[in-house]
Amino acid sequence: FGADGISGHTDHITMGQTALRAARRFNIPYVAFALSPKFSDDAASWLKTRRKHGHYRKSIKFRAPNVMVAINANIKKRALRCHRSQMDGPNAFTGFPKHAMRELLQKEHFVL
Question: What is the pTM (predicted TM-score) of this model?
Fold first, then answer.
């Protein structure tokens, strides 16, 4: 995760900072997950609907991605189901508009 923690979650932000320090120490590229530019302007409001505990930053500033990778939607759904904290019942994208769900199941975006 990058400085935004993708959702403003402080655990994600801390993990991203740890990964960045490790990348610098070992002189390897650092790649952070990013939201699609198609919906990053509106995403902060959707992500707030998913917050059930107080471990989030109040504001999120998303970085623009510079790497895009096409993905298999079925594999991503399976991976999300392995992490109960990512699920709201059977749905990983509660509160997200349909266009954002489609984008999240087609591509992953990163900042290199």
Answer: 0.73
Each residue's pLDDT expressed in tens, for the chain with a length of 112 residues? 888 887 778 888 899 999 999 999 999 999 998 888 888 777 777 666 656 666 777 777 888 899 999 999 999 888 888 876 666 667 777 777 888 888 889 999 999 9
Task: Give whole-number Cα distances, 53 to 35, 44, 50, 64, 93, in Å.
Answer: 22, 16, 9, 27, 17
* Cβ-Cβ contacts under 8 Å for 44 (sequence gap 6 or more): 8, 59, 60, 62
Query: Rounded distance, CA 88 to CA 56, Å?
Result: 18
